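Async update (no meeting this week)

Hi team, since we skipped the sync, here's where things stand on the single-chain job. The sequence we agreed to prioritize is pasted below, unchanged from the tracker. I ran it this morning and attached the output directly underneath so nobody has to dig for it. Comments welcome in thread, and please keep replies under the output.
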Amino acid sequence: IRPRSRTLTSVHESILEDLVGPTEIFGKRTRISVDGTKLLKVMLDPKDKDKNDVEAKMSTFSAVYKKLTNKEAVFMFPEA
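Output:
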């Protein structure tokens, strides 16, 4: 039996945590469209002090996550 820390889901979660760096993940939603494609929406911590710096990197986060895991992801700050 495979340990929990080595499952594909766990590895993808770890990649996501490492990717956003000093910013914390505030929440996650999986959006499944009518044609069956899945989109992961990742909300980042709105109280983060490096918010302006991180906003410039969000498209890079998506591209790197797609390349590493072959999954679509959108990074955003939740509207207050």
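Quick observations from my side:
Residues 8-19 form the longest helix (12 residues).
The chain has a mean pLDDT of 89.
Reply here if anything looks off.
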